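ESCALATION

Customer reports they have been waiting on this structure for their group meeting. Please prioritize. Original submission:
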Amino acid sequence: MRIDIITCVPKLLESPFSHSILQRAQNKGLAEVVVHNLRDYTVNKHKHVDDYAFGGGAGMVLMIDPIDRCIKHLRESRTYEEVIYMSPDGELFNQSIANELSLKGNLIILCGHYKGVDERVREHLVTREISIGDYVLSGGELGAAVVADAVIRLIPGVLSDETSALTDSFQDGLVAPPVYTRPADYQGMKVPDILLSGNEKLIEKWRFEQAVERTRKRRPGLLLD
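Update from on-call: job pushed to the front of the queue and completed.
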């Protein structure tokens, strides 16, 4: 999988893809993340990628021209299954969408900035709009990093334990149950006896019951869904 991220502030994305699982995935050749500076696709000498909104109003708007140039340039080299725009009013990102995107080939993620992008970008150039929550960030870069992380970790071979991603929260519509590790007794705070019993069937039953109860208390909407 290759993910191309288009942004006018590429330095914001230097760290997320240079560490941990995302770096390991790229080193293994399982995923490739390439960040493109939108300013490289401008035709004006000042490298402006934004302008005032027609009709007036506060804030600047990303112009369609450099975005279109960048996407066309990328499409000359490969096929992309989705061109995603990170938008506050896009579909709310969740584990189901992450699973879906992880099965696709190449993705483009466009990061909005300022007051957003010229509406013609949304109407004609992108295939999908995604939001990571009902709040506004300074730009789409952090959202793009979130989406890339959630998607790439699902690619087979990225995680050391192939079953780890399958037991994550939300994969089965529930949040994950509590987990414990050594020591079994820390200053009187003990691990539940069932987890030390060695009885896998009872342990799995306990974990499921805990997941349901935790979901009921913390994220009841998931049970309704």
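Sent to customer with the following note: The mean pLDDT is 93.
Escalation resolved.
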